[in-house]
Amino acid sequence: GQNIDQPTEMTATEGAIVQINCTYQTSGFNGLFWYQQHAGEAPTFLSYNVLDGLEEKGRFSSFLSRSKGYSYLLLKELQMKDSASYLCAVNHNQGGKLIFGQGTELSVKP
Amino acid sequence: DAGITQSPRHKVTETGTPVTLRCHQTENHRYMYWYRQDPGHGLRLIHYSYGVKDTDKGEVSDGYSVSRSKTEDFLLTLESATSSQTSVYFCAISEMGDRVPDTQYFGPGTRLTVL
């Protein structure tokens, strides 16, 4: 079966660093995506990992370990506007279909 | 931002009525997807299309049908709406050959309530 797990909720303080974990078990693997979704809005693309290691993009970084079926999204210098849901998704075949985790609701507090 | 629109943005309907949701893109992308998003379930794929008149089922396709007669339009139809189909529906598009292949870009969503 296909399974993607991420914590349901997290809380962090403005200016701090937070790490959102994602573990996956899928029949195939062709890349892992992170999306951000603010309440009432569409998901927006944040990052993509297909090889092991860290991808850095400004305040956001994403890490992948294929052997462990594990990824994390690292958010630095948290801002209030980072309060959102963060979705982990795996492309498990060549057709481009994504399987999504349930999302992690991040609350950033002053 | 990718040019994707969805219509209607909000709809309230009654059980047993047919409903059609429209997704329109201006990016000329080959792949289009319909998802539903419900609390506790995340985004789940209903149907997708890999070209004009080429469609296939996703993980929650029962009760839904789709059509794609033009590259830019992907229609989702609920033949006879049920209360379990109350949800937020998102359309997405993607294109092989992008800098990051298979990245899906989402439309603004349609909030459907079935009474």
Describe the protein.
The complex is a heterodimer of chains A (110) and B (115). Helices cover 0% and strands 56% of the residues of chain A. In chain A, strands 2, 4, 5, 9, 10 and 11 form a six-stranded mixed β-sheet that branches. In chain A, strands 1-3-8-7-6 form a five-stranded antiparallel β-sheet, with no helix packed on it. Chain A is an all-beta fold. Chain A is globular and about 40 Å long. In chain A, strand 7 and strand 8 (70-75) form a beta hairpin. In chain B, a hairpin with a 2-residue loop joins strand 7 and strand 8. Chain B has no helices and eleven strands. Chain B is mainly β and 115 residues long. In chain B, strands 2, 4, 5, 6, 9, 10 and 11 form a seven-stranded mixed β-sheet that branches. The interface between A and B is medium-sized, with 20 and 24 residues.
Write the layout of secondary structure elements.
The complex is a heterodimer of chains A (110) and B (115).
Chain A: E1 3-5, E2 9-13, E3 18-25, E4 32-37, E5 44-49, E6 53-57, E7 60-65, E8 70-75, E9 84-91, E10 98-100, E11 104-109
Parallel strand pairs in A: 2-11
Antiparallel strand pairs in A: 1-3, 3-8, 4-5, 4-9, 6-7, 7-8, 9-10, 9-11
Chain B: E1 4-7, E2 10-13, E3 19-25, E4 31-38, E5 42-51, E6 54-57, E7 64-70, E8 73-78, E9 87-94, E10 105-106, E11 110-114
Parallel strand pairs in B: 2-11
Antiparallel strand pairs in B: 1-3, 3-8, 4-5, 4-9, 5-6, 7-8, 9-10, 9-11
Rg of chain A over CA atoms, rounded to whole Å, is: 13 Å
Query: Helix fraction of chain A?
Result: under 10%
Question: How do the SSEs of chain A run, as a string of H and E?
Answer: EEEEEEEEEEE
Strand segment tally of chain A: 11
Structural class by secondary-structure content of chain A: mainly beta
Quantity of strands of chain B, as a count: 11
**Which of globular, elongated, flat, extended, rod-shaped describes the shape of chain A?**
globular
Number of helices of chain B: 0
The biggest beta sheet of chain A is recorded as:
6 strands, mixed
Q: Give the CA-CA distance, first to last residue of chain A.
A: 41 Å
Q: Return the average pLDDT of chain B rounded to an integer.
A: 92
Mean pLDDT level of chain A: 94
Largest sheet of chain B: 7 strands, mixed
Q: Tell me the structural class of chain B.
A: mainly beta
Assembly state here? heterodimer
